[in-house]
Amino acid sequence: MERYFKITEIPESEFVKKTGERWIGVQTYVALDDSIYIGVDCDMTSRMVVELEDLE
Q1: Cβ distance 37 to 51 under 8 Å?
Q2: Closest Cα to residue 22, out of 41, 2, 3, 43?
Q3: Structure confidence at residue 9 (pLDDT)
Q4: For the chain, which has fewer Cβ within 10 Å, the N-terminal or C-terminal residue?
Q5: Do 12 and 20 touch, CB atoms closer than 8 A?
Q6: Which tens digit of pLDDT belongs to each residue from 19-52?
Q7: What is the pTM (predicted TM-score) of this model?
Q8: Contacts of 24 (CB under 8 A, 6+ apart)
């Protein structure tokens, strides 16, 4: 089964407003309603990892 996704960069303030979280580390993500919010430290990694089951 094919699936398609759209990833859009948002400001930190929007991430915090939507998730209520700040993080320390390489990556964090929060699944809310029909969206997943991802925070990535680009100085520590060059990729994002999201479990497909969290998109359902």
Answers
A1: no
A2: 41
A3: 93
A4: N
A5: no
A6: 888 876 888 888 887 888 888 888 988 888 888 8
A7: 0.74
A8: none
Nearest-angstrom CA–CA distance, 24 and 41:
9
Give 10-55 as a 3 state SS string: CCHHHHHHHHCCCCCCCEEEEEECCEEEEEECCCCCCCCCCCHHHH
SS3 assignment, position 3: coil
Dist. CA 7–CA 24, nearest whole Å: 22
Residue 29: Cβ within 10 Å count:
18
Contact between 23 and 30 under an 8 Å Cβ cutoff? The reply is no
Q: What pLDDT sits at residue 28?
A: 86
Contact of 27 with 45, CB cutoff 8 Å: yes
